[in-house]
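User: I'm putting together notes for a lab meeting next week and I want to include a structural view of one of the chains we've been expressing. I don't have a solved structure, so I'd like a prediction I can at least talk through. The sequence is below, exactly as it appears in our construct file.
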Amino acid sequence: MSFDIFVMRFENGETVPLDMAVAHEVLGPFVVGRDSGADVLSVRTAEGEEADVYLNPPDGITFNRFGGGGIMDLLAELLRRLDAVLVVPGGTVVVQGDEARRQLPGVLADAGPTVIARTGAEIDRAIRAA
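Assistant: Thanks for the context. Below is the predicted structure for the 130-residue chain, given as structure tokens.
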């Protein structure tokens, strides 16, 4: 897919920093290219699926040109480890559970559907439905 999706974390309706060390730990084994000046990673799964990942410290990670089950599984692991949510263009927000839903700012909670998705396949379905 060639649009951007955003990994973010919220507490009490406010954006909070992501643990970028954890992000590097999760993404590191899949990095096949890096633009250190812009903090852009090219990742590839064992199945050959790819994505561009833009690290926007302290509070955002953007995935672009992504697709395939392996990338979705990687994204699910990233969301789980960062205790983060996925913001999809059009207003859909993918969360790991009800607690994350309660932490969203009102503007996101009211903008579109909030979908609980914990696996790569569930996240893929939520993005395609958005």
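A couple of points you could mention at the meeting. The chain has five helices and ten strands. The beta strands are 5-8, 10-11, 14-15, 31-35, 40-44, 50-56, 60-64, 85-87, 93-95, 114-116.

User: Perfect, that's what I needed.
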